[in-house]
Amino acid sequence: MSILVNKNTRLLVQGITGNEGLFHTTQMVEYGTNIVAGVTPGKGGEWVLEGKVPVFDSVRLAVEATGVNTTVIFVPARFAADAMFEAADAGIPLIVCITEGVPVQDMMQVRNYLDQKGIRLVGPNCPGLLTPGETKVGIIPGDIAIPGNVGVVSRSGTLTYEVLYAMKNLEMGASTCVGIGGDPINGTNFIDVLEMFEHDPMTEKVIMIGEIGGTDEEKAAEYIASKMTKPVASFIAGQTAPPGKRMGHAGAIIEGGEGTAADKIKALEAAGVRVAKHPEEIPTLLQ
Amino acid sequence: MSILVNKNTRLLVQGITGNEGLFHTTQMVEYGTNIVAGVTPGKGGEWVLEGKVPVFDSVRLAVEATGVNTTVIFVPARFAADAMFEAADAGIPLIVCITEGVPVQDMMQVRNYLDQKGIRLVGPNCPGLLTPGETKVGIIPGDIAIPGNVGVVSRSGTLTYEVLYAMKNLEMGASTCVGIGGDPINGTNFIDVLEMFEHDPMTEKVIMIGEIGGTDEEKAAEYIASKMTKPVASFIAGQTAPPGKRMGHAGAIIEGGEGTAADKIKALEAAGVRVAKHPEEIPTLLQ
Amino acid sequence: MKLHEYQSKQIFSRYGIPIPKGRVAATASEARQIADELGGRVVVKSQVLVGGRGKAGGIKVAKNSIEAEQLATQILAMDIKGLPVRKVLIDEAAAIDQEIYLGITNDRAAKKPVMIASASGGVDIEEVAATTPEKIIREHIDPLLGLRDYQSRDIAAFIDLPRDYWRDFGRIARGLWEAYTSSDATLAEINPLVITKDKRLLALDGKMVIDDNALFRHPDLAEMRDSDEEARSETEARKYGLSFIKLDGNIGCMVNGAGLAMTSMDVIKLFGGEPANFLDIGGGAGADKVAAAMRIILADPNVKAVLYNIFGGITRCDEVARGILAAMEEVKPQVPMVVRLVGTNAEEGRALLADANMITAETLADAAQKAVAAAQSSAGKGA
Amino acid sequence: MKLHEYQSKQIFSRYGIPIPKGRVAATASEARQIADELGGRVVVKSQVLVGGRGKAGGIKVAKNSIEAEQLATQILAMDIKGLPVRKVLIDEAAAIDQEIYLGITNDRAAKKPVMIASASGGVDIEEVAATTPEKIIREHIDPLLGLRDYQSRDIAAFIDLPRDYWRDFGRIARGLWEAYTSSDATLAEINPLVITKDKRLLALDGKMVIDDNALFRHPDLAEMRDSDEEARSETEARKYGLSFIKLDGNIGCMVNGAGLAMTSMDVIKLFGGEPANFLDIGGGAGADKVAAAMRIILADPNVKAVLYNIFGGITRCDEVARGILAAMEEVKPQVPMVVRLVGTNAEEGRALLADANMITAETLADAAQKAVAAAQSSAGKGA
């Protein structure tokens, strides 16, 4: 068991013939992900991976032909909103957007539109999802994680890899790892994923990796305190970040005194979450 | 019993200090409608009807102060969309828009927005609703109808009065009369109201007054044939209307061969509806 | 409100849609001059607000400016479906490879705008819809979000547009969407959108219909109205805020409310008469408006009788009666008048009209029958 | 990207928001000339991208153009919070009756834009929010529908704006909304929006922040960037697509991924060091980018040691190693370097760096501790 993606995932790759799209399509297929189609407008009728994956001109055509149930988006930032609208209008219930740098006003429109339709978006500006041993949707390196009972949710990319790697070194496996992304307006937040982990029978413990900016960690702390039965360990990046500066991620900024690491750590600890001092320490808190 | 409006209706009048708004507020109060508040931006704090009805600057303020559950809109066409958005955002579940001449692109935005929020709109360009003996929301003259068991739904104004008057002359009463309005894009269509009448225990028969333009009568015929148990009589205005011309109502136009009275009558008769030759004949078909 | 081809194309051009070089001419010599400027080979296109101009001979290709002048002379002398040609558009002639249809209109049932396209352009889209519906794509547009780029691509793919043109087609589709929303159009169509032999997309013909109810926010578009193209009585009626449509019968009608006005026509017909017009004086009409309506009805020489059907609600019957009396003073009608007043202040209204020489009626059926009889007897007298 | 006051107000003006007459000057004599044109009585306002200009003495009123020149001379010689003043805005002075705050920003939690207003303008809105939150109205705007007129009226009512101003206020609110959306702003604020003694609404001061991610569709705004206002190293980093922020410590950091880069700083601090910068080389960075990053880090004379923390995923460790070697050739660093490579092609990367004079580490904690120790010893040597 797992959340969001598993071996029944029938994946579409939007932007499949681009450099990044094609590289990660190869990686995903090697991992065992069932990629049933790709979309690149203007390249419908071609095939990639030596005839393994058909390319369509539009998501609608791909969905009709292949029964997609999840899509992963690798298109450039300026086309990302359109790609998400297209996937939503084609009725795909789970959209994972890897693209970094999507304008925030685009994202507000996308998020409001998707909410109307009840469609789940993960990302953008995220590494995607990995259910070790089953499927990989996105760019998380498959070999750094093993199957297990720890759910991982994170706003970050490589920091997550760091944690998965530390887990693996301790022979601790993951049920599903969800990268929710570093943008201020995104599709899925901590509470959404925590709730799924809480209800996933295969997940027994949870690691939550936050960072400065916004108040999602504080809200997650409230959820954990009031609703969660499973133990949660956490790490918050950006304790040394100066206020008013965007720390790489569009969403990683302390503004108006809000979004500091100290506030988040305080809220989490008050909710009974064990907060690590550095990322390699996190898995040890759950042992 | 009745549909949509009754003696529990707590009505707000948007545009209450305008000529039309004030005139019909007086008429409605005389009829017995419970008008709890009015809105005219910039006139908050005033009172109308000799101190009986308070005026607010905004719908939100009116709702907070008085517990409105229905609103009727009399503002000029150029402000009507804004008035509907305002009512929707204030959470009023039933909006009745009397205003004629609302731009159709405004109405497409309004309708799509209201659908998202699950808010019912009646109109625009309609005479409103009358539940004889209980309440009147809009401009239907109160004295031309008596309480009874016939539900009336119509795209027209004075034509409806004609029918109510003919009913009264036969001592036939109405449960509720709903004017859905003559615009091509409106809030409530025939099927919506037929369904409510079908489920209203006080309604035993239904009169449906259609006209040329669109295919709502054809769809209503399908609904009547497949779902309705109560007898329906009908009249379709515009049998002599030339194609391609808007017959007063923005929605009353035969376009591309669609929307003729002949088609509608045919569909209704095929559904077992008795269609009258002239409006005064309608009530006799239900006797 | 319908716009002429040249007006529609000017609007399209503002939103980045490529149109042929060209200008409108009111005389043949202007046409020649424009043709000269454009290099000689041009299309001379009658500007009238009806379809089927081509079949009627109102669109012709000229090989040079002299021929353009000759053709303009011919076309400017034409009547097309009853409408005199007052202007011609002189457009640079294009060498055409393929003709496409692209339009946006409101889908009443879906409550959304819909973009419609077909690889078979240049003909009436309703004909294509009737004969080969599978050749048409209908793409609904979210009115809150607007046309998305992917939708233009879906359309391009459906109509088998060669991929080299997708980018330009996307711009044209977006331009058409912007023209449609920014103008409060109920229809914006390019028919045909052509692929030229030199590999360009070009909007060869265009049509826009503007929502009359939205003209208040488009004073520039309101000024484009061509009153030459409608019956004088309709122009006059608009001035007074009356909803009026001229018909071919001989019984004038004045009614309050559009549905009741249509019904009154229907009932006249039911009892063997023919309505001369549709006229809705609207809710709450005062004496002035009523008098104007009466003048407009009686200006039609066909009218042999007039039916007044007023159901007082907002409109007060006494007000209407006063309007009728005032207008009778002024117009001195020579035809019989049947009047039916019901509802608010009907008594007072009837009292006011008691001394006027009018036929009264209780019900609509009764009124219609009396009007039909009166028209027949009046027409008999006139003959 | 922050815009200067004068730039923000120019944009506001395009959307119909009334602003004072005025122009920007780079010299005192220009300032005098502008003051002359404006009739003498003006405000001289330093244009620097920080708040608190007024308190710092960077905003002064001049009674005439001679005084304007004197004040401009003073202000152009100032540093405000470390930023040298290079330009002054000379605005016609206004007689003020009341100061209002009006702004739009993105509400992360609500996923919607929010319009914020307060009757207490002219001061920092965050201060008002902290001390008297009841004086602030926050009106969320549907991103698909835009600001509705009724919302502006709700705001006007909340801030007790006299009704005579509601119509103009509505236009200003709509203009601000349009400026915000059309510019892809993350913040657009008028502070203060004043009621003048002669009964006008006027945007006296303005501030806009543009979404860097949206600059691709606003080349005109991208050109407004004032590189004078940021550390040279940050300008340089942007050129190479690196995410870089200068800090005050002495341990340079080069990391792939923003979260891991922040974490590396945190772990340095945890073990007693101080990071000299934040630097994310991004995913899939090649040798060129790595070399540029290294140059930027080493250009800071404070740097006493450098930590490389690379977790190979998309980024390949061997590529990064090659970048480090290339940059070392060029820059010849004099400080100790600690390198940690994990993940994709880590072995190859480590092999490439084996001969370079670098300290290697297995874990991040180990790497940080080694960097802290190296910086201490290197700083000791330098002293």
General description of the model:
The complex is a heterotetramer, with 2 copies of chain A (287 residues) and 2 copies of chain C (383 residues). Chain A has 287 residues and is an alpha/beta fold. Chain A has helices at residues 19-31, 59-66, 77-89, 104-117, 158-169, 190-199, 216-227, 261-270, 282-285; strands at 11-14, 35-39, 47-48, 53-56, 70-73, 94-97, 120-122, 128-131, 135-138, 147-154, 174-179, 205-211, 232-237, 274-275. Chain A is 33% helix and 22% strand. In chain A, helix 3 (77-89) runs parallel beside helix 4 and helix 6 (190-199) runs parallel beside helix 7. Chain C has 383 residues and is of the alpha+beta class. In chain C, strands 7, 8, 9, 10, 11 and 12 form a 6-stranded antiparallel sheet that branches. In chain C, strands 1-6-2-3 form a 4-stranded antiparallel sheet, covered by helices on one side. A 4-stranded parallel sheet of chain C has the order 14-16-17-18, sandwiched between helices. In chain C, helix 2 packs antiparallel against helix 3 and helix 11 (317-331) runs parallel beside helix 12 (346-353). Chain C is elongated, with a radius of gyration of 25 Å. Chains in contact: A-C, A-D, B-C, B-D. The interface between A and D is large, with 64 and 56 residues.
Structural class of chain C: alpha+beta
Instruction: Choose one word for the global shape of chain A.
Output: globular
Q: How many alpha or pi helices of chain C? A: 13
Shape of chain C: elongated
Oligomer: heterotetramer
List how many beta strands of chain C DSSP finds: 18
Distance between the termini of chain C: 39 Å
Please estimate the helix content of chain C: 25-40%
What is the CATH-assigned architecture of the largest domain in chain C? 3-Layer(aba) Sandwich
Tell me which protein chains meet in the greatest interface and how many residues each side has. A-D, 64 and 56 residues
Helix content of chain A: 25-40%
Amino-to-carboxy terminus distance of chain A: 21 Å
**Number of alpha- plus pi-helical segments of chain A:** 9
Radius of gyration of chain A: 18 Å
Order of helices and strands of chain A: EHEEEHEHEHEEEEHEHEHEHEH
What is the overall pLDDT average of chain C?
Answer: 92
Mean pLDDT of chain A: 95
Q: Pick out the low-confidence regions of chain A.
A: none
Strand pairing plus helix content of chain A: what structural class?
A: alpha/beta
CATH domain fold name of the largest domain in chain C: Rossmann fold
